[in-house]
């Protein structure tokens, strides 16, 4: 790994399905960004083309820029796309005899219970590529049936004959004893040279065979896709003379080196929006806001995440495309509502919006691409909230929108505009319902949050959503569309470690817990040292972790958590140990107290007289790659031409002539009041009457109740009254 | 915002709240039954209209209204803020004893506006014990379980310690049940908090108007669905295998379904008399079962609430198997009687128009064990067997291992590792069984075969359910074939092999192994019309045998498919 001197460049490249976003951090701290089309046949093409454009904007030849660049942070949706389009590797599954159908049986459940006219999601591994071999480890970790190696070789031969490129290995209780899985991997490696191997005790050493197997199979399914992409990319960059590091963004918001990224490809499955939290952390941190909810409302999806003190919540439950993943990842919930959500009327005459979506193709009726169904976007257009075009050359047809919405209006017996207002209102309420559930799961009261809105259709709906939820402040960052890339510039190196306590000992004492954490912490030290970055943006690490443990390097931030539950409960809550190097009885007591409180917040009761037990110990190790503050927007980077106009838009039950302002042209730190429409790069911020707004020097738009002052609102959100520092443990 | 739009907003919000309540229960529960989602949540208006539900197990949901009525019959007029009511007695409106109902009033600015309800299957409700409440040897409701009539667990916010003591003293697994009662009350409290927030936001009067609009729309919705069905009178008969140890004869449930325009009448008065034993269905359970039959074939977007109930009539005769009167025992009714009632609805509809309906689903057939785990010192209650398949519909194969229509796939199997950590049992095998589905142009979902080894002496195991007789296997529709029957064997450690009788209790020792076969679903349409590539894929995946592919599906002999084979099962 090349170690460059100080004062070099750092580049982030976020490759999405449609666009590739790039951001460049210069030695002077100034950021430049660029947006270009993605090249799905080989994403490396768009990657390299984007680098060229970025170099031009920076006024450097590409070779020169790359020579002076120490780190390229790369976010990719290639694994997500492989899963969605079902173009992953031809995958086999090797499991314990007797459990061939653990995945296919889906735990006997169906999401839409009453829909018998439907088929289950097709499995990633067809049944004839699932092999079950004799072996067994019992609930104490003891081997009760030795691994049948001959049978395993037979299975490997059948995999080879079937053209299997990737094999997942998942045995019963392997998280307690990985001996058989390790041996199976050795044999498979010998029998199937070149095949990608995904082993459950390495990928996710945790209790629950179904989730562990599903996660391991997903890793096998997308692993070769990511490996091949990264290999090609590394070759291309080497050919261009690049000798620095490439770091890959993970679903947990952190970054890892190339080798680890490919081996644990499943960690990138949900990394699409994973860059945003780091950027949001910078923006709300500057405002002094402690807790934030970030929403990203695209054409078909609506994503939400919660952050506290700059750290976004972590979950170990997600089901991309219906396949469970049990790994720590940013808790970014997905809600099936977006601009494309279709409005319809039940046979009983009730308006519903979604869950069906017109997507991007054919898209809303107003796109004129053949879509005939009335969507949220069509309603927003009729209400005057959207301009007549999408900003990328697609003109919106009010006539088509009116025709589509009119059909729903007739069924409801309402006027078309009233119906459009109803669709807008109903989808807002539905989104608010989902956000309420998302916050409640964390025991968080939305009234203590700021709502950060990242691009897309979000700013059209955000202020009303905030009003529904009692949120006092809406934050619209500048250049929201490259928010992820900007966040990636400052992503931390992050590793998560887990040690399953369940099934090992009845009542581990503090010394045992401390010893278990010590093992995890040693691993963290080694792993992070291997990926540590030295490119001039990493100087001046803070040393605030004085008391977080004496052993690891000072800059590594360690957080110890335990998954806790009442004895006899089925599910657990992750709760953080109080910071401090010593894990003693007092620390365990403090953690237990916190657990009782969080339990009441989430579930409506606590039982302080009932003993608690630990299921897993978790360690989060975080090494910042930069201390660079978020740079201000490069002037003129995103804004269109200056000037204001006006448009008729629907507020308070009627149309009004409302000013349309270009965000870049609004004087900084000057209070204005709604109604107003603020035009951004490819969206509109809708400010209803009764709300005030200001644009900060950094280009961020703040929206709040007109009866209040900005400083008063910010002061209300800065106090740490509502948060304990981490979303995993919710409010104190 | 117009009233119609507010109705949509409030309707969505109420369902989100019911879901939030279920989410809280799921994440804070104790028993394996709750973990497998054997519970529901609901919301009622102050007047008792059932307006929202999260029905993981629908047979629990459709009987919420009668539980509400049972509680209010006793406490109307003296309901106060902070009260919590409990009920499990089937003769005060509950469906069956193991499902304990919790009801909590929601006051807003001093006025009763809503009720939140939760109901779940508890690990223990006393009585003679059996497996998770199921005891095939009981004769009447006194032997069946502890009977809890409507009583208060909290009165004006004060915990009624004497009532708690009276209930918990009668239970073997008092810690588990106490925890799960708190879990239910906690969820009801979460619902209460959320409803108050909603009332604050929109005001009580607009919200109540919105609820009225929503209920009327639900009634119209169901009427529109029924209106699409051909008018006529359609009859169907389905059976329970038996009524428990004291009634070893099949019992008939007879439905006369009259479709007249947009109205349907479900007349079950011709059903057999109630029996001595635990298989009798309460009226509440019968209503819930008819609703599953109905909602299982209508638009999934239909809301399941009091509005929909207004569009149908259900007629029964007290003293019959579908309308038990005191002192009949009833614990099995949420499984077997429910399934048989649902089947009469689907079979009658098949006679009206097969494209509407489902072929028969598997019957519930389970082995349940309870006791204290010697290894952990903790009480356990466990069931172990891969569930059976669902029936095919016009255009779709059934779902594999989804279980009986009681749950409609809303349950979730306990993970094998969690199972083995909690129970003194080892699951040796749990997989699909080749040729277990009813053949058809669209075939049934697959059933399973499970091998379950007992790891300590003297474990009481109950075999519960039905579907082990030729007349109770899942039926085919429109030329589709029926599926094979449920059956089981016990491989005793001394080498004996026995076949347990359905609805009987076994005492098993360390090393004994139970082998359980659950049926797939019934098929739809002539199997010879099944797409050839679908048959070949099933053979390749080891789901249909080569012999069945030729003999039942008519695959030509010159097309020799190669299967990936069945799976060697068991290690006895």
Short descriptors:
heterodimer; A: 732 residues; alpha+beta; nine-stranded mixed beta sheet; six-stranded mixed beta sheet; 17 helices; globular; disordered N terminus; disordered C terminus; B: 572 residues; seven-stranded antiparallel beta sheet; five-stranded antiparallel beta sheet; 14 helices; 22% strand
Provide an overview of this structure:
The complex is a heterodimer of chains A (732) and B (572). By secondary structure, chain A is of the alpha+beta class. In chain A, strands 13, 14, 15, 18, 21, 22, 29, 32 and 33 form a nine-stranded mixed beta sheet that branches. Chain A has a six-stranded mixed beta sheet with strand order 3-2-1-4-11-12, sandwiched between helices. Mean pLDDT of chain A is 84; it is low at 1-6, 540-554, 631-642 and 721-732. In chain B, a hairpin with a 5-residue loop joins strand 17 and strand 18 (497-498). The mean pLDDT of chain B is 93. At the A-B interface, helix 7, strand 20, helix 12 and helix 16 of A face helix 1, helix 2, helix 7, helix 8 and helix 12 of B.
Detail the poorly predicted runs of chain B: none
Q: What gyration radius of chain B follows from the Cα positions, in whole Å?
A: 24 Å
**Helix residue percentage of chain B:** 25-40%
Q: Cα distance, first to last residue of chain A?
A: 44 Å
Layout: helices, strands, pairs:
The complex is a heterodimer of chains A (732) and B (572).
Chain A: E1 9-15, E2 19-25, E3 31-37, H1 43-58, H2 62-67, E4 69-76, H3 78-84, E5 91-96, E6 130-133, E7 136-137, E8 143-145, H4 149-161, E9 166-170, H5 179-191, E10 196-199, H6 200-203, H7 209-239, E11 245-249, E12 255-257, H8 258-263, H9 276-287, E13 291-297, E14 302-308, E15 311-312, E16 314-315, E17 329-330, E18 332-335, E19 341-345, E20 351-357, H10 376-382, H11 398-412, H12 416-441, E21 450-456, H13 458-469, E22 473-476, H14 483-489, E23 493-500, H15 510-531, E24 557-566, E25 573-576, H16 585-603, E26 612-623, E27 645-651, E28 654-662, E29 672-673, E30 676-679, E31 684-687, E32 691-695, E33 701-705, H17 710-718
Parallel strand pairs in A: 1-4, 4-11, 5-6, 5-9, 9-10, 13-21, 21-22, 28-30
Antiparallel strand pairs in A: 1-2, 2-3, 7-8, 11-12, 13-14, 14-15, 14-18, 16-17, 19-20, 22-33, 23-26, 24-25, 24-26, 27-28, 29-32, 30-31, 32-33
Helix pairs in contact in A: 3-7, 4-5, 9-14, 10-11, 10-12, 11-12, 12-13
Chain B: H1 3-28, H2 32-35, E1 39-45, E2 50-55, H3 58-61, H4 64-75, E3 84-87, E4 99-108, E5 111-121, H5 141-144, E6 151-155, E7 158-159, H6 161-169, H7 174-202, H8 204-227, E8 232-240, E9 251-260, E10 263-267, H9 283-295, H10 306-309, E11 312-315, H11 336-352, E12 365-372, E13 379-383, H12 416-422, E14 425-432, E15 448-454, E16 459-465, E17 487-491, E18 497-498, E19 504-508, E20 513-517, H13 532-540, H14 546-551
Parallel strand pairs in B: 10-11
Antiparallel strand pairs in B: 1-2, 1-5, 3-4, 3-6, 4-5, 6-7, 8-9, 9-10, 12-13, 12-16, 14-15, 15-20, 16-19, 17-18, 17-20
């Amino acid at each position: 790994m090349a170690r460059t001197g100080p004062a070099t460049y750092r580049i982030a490249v976020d490759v999405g399905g449609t666009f590739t976003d790039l951001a460049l951090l210069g030695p002077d701290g100034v950021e430049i960004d660029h947006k270009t089309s993605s090249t799905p046949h080989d994403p490396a093409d768009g990657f390299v083309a984007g680098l060229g454009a970025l170099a031009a904007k920076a006024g450097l030849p590409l070779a020169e820029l790359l020579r002076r660049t120490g780190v390229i942070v790369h976010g990719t949706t290639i694994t997500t796309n492989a899963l969605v389009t079902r173009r992953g590797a031809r995958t086999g599954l090797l499991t314990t005899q007797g459990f061939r159908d653990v995945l296919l049986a889906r735990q006997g459940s169906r999401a839409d219970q009453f829909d018998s006219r439907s088929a289950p999601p097709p499995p990633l591994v067809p049944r004839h590529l699932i092999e079950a071999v004799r072996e067994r480890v019992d609930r104490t970790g003891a081997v009760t049936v030795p691994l049948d190696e001959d049978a395993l070789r037979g299975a490997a031969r059948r995999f080879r004959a079937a053209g299997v490129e990737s094999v997942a290995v998942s045995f019963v209780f392997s998280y307690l004893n990985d001996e058989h899985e390790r041996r199976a991997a050795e044999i498979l490696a010998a029998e199937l040279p070149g095949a990608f191997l995904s082993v459950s005790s390495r990928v996710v050493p945790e209790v629950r065979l179904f989730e562990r197997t599903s996660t391991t199979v997903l890793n096998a399914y997308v692993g070769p896709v990511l490996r091949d992409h990264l290999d090609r990319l590394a070759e291309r960059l080497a050919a261009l003379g690049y000798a620095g590091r490439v770091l890959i963004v993970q679903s947990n918001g952190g970054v890892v080196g190339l080798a680890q990224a490919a081996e644990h490809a499943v960690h990138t499955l949900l990394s699409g929006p994973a860059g945003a939290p780091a950027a949001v952390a910078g923006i709300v941190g500057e405002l002094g806001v402690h807790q934030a909810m970030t929403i990203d409302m695209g054409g078909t999806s609506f994503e939400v995440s919660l952050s506290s003190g700059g750290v976004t919540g972590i979950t170990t439950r997600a089901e991309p495309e219906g396949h469970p993943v049990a790994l720590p990842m940013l808790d970014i919930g997905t809600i099936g509502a977006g601009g494309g959500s279709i409005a319809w009327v039940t046979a009983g005459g009730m308006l519903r919006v979604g869950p069906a979506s017109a997507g991007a193709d054919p898209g809303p009726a107003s796109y004129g691409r053949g879509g005939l169904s009335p969507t949220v976007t069509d309603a927003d257009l009729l209400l005057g909230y959207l301009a007549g075009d999408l900003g990328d050359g697609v003109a919106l047809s009010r006539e088509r929108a009116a025709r589509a919405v009119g059909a729903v209006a007739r069924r409801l017996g309402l006027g078309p505009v009233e119906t459009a207002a109803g669709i807008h209102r109903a989808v807002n309420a539905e989104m608010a319902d989902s956000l309420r559930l998302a916050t409640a799961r964390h025991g968080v009261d939305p009234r203590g949050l700021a709502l950060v809105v990242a691009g897309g259709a979000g700013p059209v709906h955000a202020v009303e959503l905030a009003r529904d939820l009692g949120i006092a402040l809406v934050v619209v960052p500048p250049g929201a569309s490259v928010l992820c890339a900007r966040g990636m510039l400052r992503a931390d190196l992050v590793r998560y470690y887990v040690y399953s306590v369940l099934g090992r000992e009845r009542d581990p004492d503090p010394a045992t817990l401390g010893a278990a954490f010590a093992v995890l912490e040693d691993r963290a030290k080694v792993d992070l040292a291997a990926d540590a970055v030295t490119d001039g943006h990493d100087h001046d690490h803070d040393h605030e972790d004085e008391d977080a443990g004496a052993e690891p390097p000072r800059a590594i931030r360690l957080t110890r958590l335990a998954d806790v539950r009442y004895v006899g409960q089925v599910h657990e809550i992750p709760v953080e140990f109080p910071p401090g190097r010593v894990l003693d009885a007092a620390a365990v007591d403090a953690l237990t107290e916190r657990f009782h409180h969080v339990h009441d917040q989430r579930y409506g009761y606590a039982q302080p007289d009932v003993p608690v037990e630990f299921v897993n110990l978790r360690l989060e190790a975080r090494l910042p790659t930069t201390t660079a503050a978020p740079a201000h927007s490069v002037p003129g980077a995103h804004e269109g031409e200056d000037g204001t106009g006006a448009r008729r838009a629907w507020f308070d039950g009627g149309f009004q002539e409302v000013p349309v302002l270009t965000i870049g042209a609004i004087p900084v730190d000057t209070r204005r009041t709604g109604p107003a429409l603020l035009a951004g790069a490819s969206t509109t911020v809708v400010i209803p009457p009764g709300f005030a707004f200001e644009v900060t020097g950094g280009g961020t738009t703040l929206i709040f109740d007109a009866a209040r002052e900005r400083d008063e609102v910010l002061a209300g959100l800065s106090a740490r009254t509502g948060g304990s520092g981490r979303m995993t443990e919710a409010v104190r | 915002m117009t009233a119609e739009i507010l109705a949509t907003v409030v309707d969505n919000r109420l369902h989100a709240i019911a879901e939030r309540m279920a989410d809280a229960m799921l994440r804070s529960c104790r028993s394996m039954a709750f973990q497998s989602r054997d519970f529901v949540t609901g919301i009622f208006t102050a007047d008792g209209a059932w307006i929202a539900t999260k029905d993981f197990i629908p047979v629990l949901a459709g009987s919420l209204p009668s539980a509400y009525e049972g509680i209010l019959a006793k406490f109307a007029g003296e309901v106060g803020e902070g009260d919590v009511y409990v009920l499990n007695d089937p003769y005060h409106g509950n469906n069956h004893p193991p499902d304990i109902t919790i009801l909590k009033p929601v006051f807003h600015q001093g006025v009763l506006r809503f009720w939140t309800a939760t109901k779940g299957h508890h690990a223990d409700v006393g009585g003679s014990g059996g497996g998770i409440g199921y005891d095939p040897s009981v004769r009447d409701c006194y032997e069946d379980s502890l009977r809890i009539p409507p009583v208060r667990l909290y009165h004006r916010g004060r915990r009624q310690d004497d009532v708690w003591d009276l209930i918990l003293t009668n239970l073997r697994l008092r810690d588990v049940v106490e925890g799960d009662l708190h879990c239910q009350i906690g969820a009801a409290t979460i619902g209460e908090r959320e409803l108050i927030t909603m009332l604050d936001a929109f005001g009580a009067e607009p919200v109540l108007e919105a609820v009225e609009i929503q209920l009327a729309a639900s009634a119209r919705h169901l009427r529109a669905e029924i209106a699409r069905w051909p008018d006529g009178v359609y009859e169907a008969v389905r059976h329970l295998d038996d009524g428990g140890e004291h009634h070893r004869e099949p019992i008939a449930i007879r439905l006369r379904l009259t479709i007249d325009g947009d109205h349907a009448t479900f007349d079950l008065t011709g059903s057999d008399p109630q029996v001595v034993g635990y298989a009798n269905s309460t009226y509440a359970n019968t209503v819930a079962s008819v609703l599953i039959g109905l909602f299982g074939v209508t638009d999934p977007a239909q809301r399941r609430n009091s509005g929909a109930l207004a569009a149908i009539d259900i007629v029964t005769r007290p003293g019959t198997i579908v309308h038990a009167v005191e002192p009949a025992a009833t614990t099995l009714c949420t499984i077997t009687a429910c399934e048989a009632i649902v089947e009469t609805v689907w079979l009658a509809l098949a006679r009206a128009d097969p494209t509407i309906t489902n072929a028969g689903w598997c019957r519930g057939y389970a082995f349940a064990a309870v006791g204290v785990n010697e290894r952990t010192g903790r009480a356990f209650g466990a069931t172990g067997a891969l569930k059976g398949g669902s029936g095919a519909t016009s255009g779709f194969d059934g779902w594999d291992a989804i279980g009986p229509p009681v749950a409609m796939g809303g349950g979730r199997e306990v993970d094998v590792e969690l199972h083995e950590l909690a129970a003194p049992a080892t699951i040796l095998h749990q997989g699909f069984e080749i040729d277990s589905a009813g053949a058809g142009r669209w075939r049934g979902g697959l059933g399973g075969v499970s091998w379950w080894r007992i790891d300590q002496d003297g474990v009481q195991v109950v075999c519960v359910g039905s579907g082990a007789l030729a007349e109770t296997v899942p039926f085919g529709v429109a030329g589709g074939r029926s599926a094979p029957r449920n059956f089981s064997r016990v491989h005793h450690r001394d080498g004996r092999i026995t076949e347990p009788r359905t609805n009987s209790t076994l005492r098993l020792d360390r090393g004994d192994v139970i082998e359980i076969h659950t049926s797939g679903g019934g098929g739809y349409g002539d199997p010879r019309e099944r797409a050839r590539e679908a048959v070949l894929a099933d053979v390749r995946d080891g789901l249909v045998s080569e012999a069945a592919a030729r003999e039942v599906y008519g695959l030509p002999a010159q097309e020799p498919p190669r299967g990936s084979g069945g799976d060697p099962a068991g290690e006895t």
